[in-house]
Design brief:
It is a single chain. The protein is mostly helical. It has one domain. The protein binds iron/sulfur cluster (SF4).
C-alpha cells in the first residue's frame, strides 16, 4: 500500500475537523462550570497541540508537507526543522499518552458531575458524541486514513508500534 509524499488535503481537513470537534464539545460541556473552566480547558488543548509540534512534528518526515493529521504544513511557521533520526528514537509510553487522554477525560468527568447535579438529554448527547469521536473518530482517522499511508510510519514511528502497527516497510494495517 503506497504511502503519501503529501496527503490529500481532504484527509488532513478531516483530521483537523475531528480534533476541533472534540475540543469544541469539551469546551461546551465544561462551560457548565463557568467560562473560566472552559477557557482553562481550551488553553490546555492548545498547549498540547504546541507540544506535539515541538516534540514530534519538527523531526517528522512530513515537516513542511501535508500530513494525515494536518500539522506538517503548519509547523514550519513556528519551528525550525529538527532531526528525523530523533523521531524514531523517541520513547513512547502510555504514561506519556496521559496528557492526550485528559483531553476527553476532563469533559467526560465534568459532564458526569453536571448530569448528577441536573439531568439533561442534551448533555447525554454531547457526552456520547465526545466519547464516540474520541475513540471511534480517532481510531478511524489514524487506522484508515493517516497512519495507514504514512511515510514516517514506514521509516519508524514509536506511536505506530505501540498501537500494534509495524514500521520499517512491513505493514499490518
Ligand atoms: S504526521 Fe504527526 S508528527 Fe508528522 S507532521 Fe503530521 S502530526 Fe506531526
Amino acid at each position: 500500500m503506497e504511502s503519501y509524499e503529501n496527503f490529500p488535503i481532504w484527509i488532513a481537513l478531516l483530521s483537523i475537523l475531528v480534533a476541533i470537534s472534540i475540543y469544541g464539545l469539551g469546551v461546551y460541556i465544561l462551560a457548565g462550570f463557568g467560562i473560566w473552566v472552559a477557557v482553562l480547558y481550551l488553553l490546555y488543548c492548545l498547549w498540547l497541540e504546541v507540544e506535539v509540534l515541538r516534540r514530534s512534528c519538527v523531526d517528522c518526515y512530513y515537516y513542511g508537507k501535508v500530513c494525515g493529521l494536518g500539522k506538517g504544513k503548519l509547523v514550519p511557521l513556528f519551528l525550525k526543522k529538527g532531526d528525523p533520526k530523533k523521531f524514531a528514537e523517541r520513547e513512547f509510553t502510555w504514561y506519556k499518552m496521559l496528557p492526550d487522554f485528559l483531553v476527553f477525560i476532563f469533559p467526560v468527568l465534568g459532564g458526569i458531575v453536571l448530569l448528577v447535579r441536573g439531568f439533561s438529554w442534551l448533555l447525554v448527547i454531547l457526552l456520547t458524541t465526545l466519547i464516540v469521536l474520541s475513540f471511534g473518530g480517532n481510531a478511524v482517522i489514524r487506522g484508515q486514513f493517516a497512519c495507514k499511508y504514512c511515510k514516517q510510519r514506514e521509516i519508524d514511528c514509536p506511536a505506530a508500534k505501540a498501537f500494534g502497527g509495524k514500521t520499517a516497510g512491513k505493514q499490518t494495517f
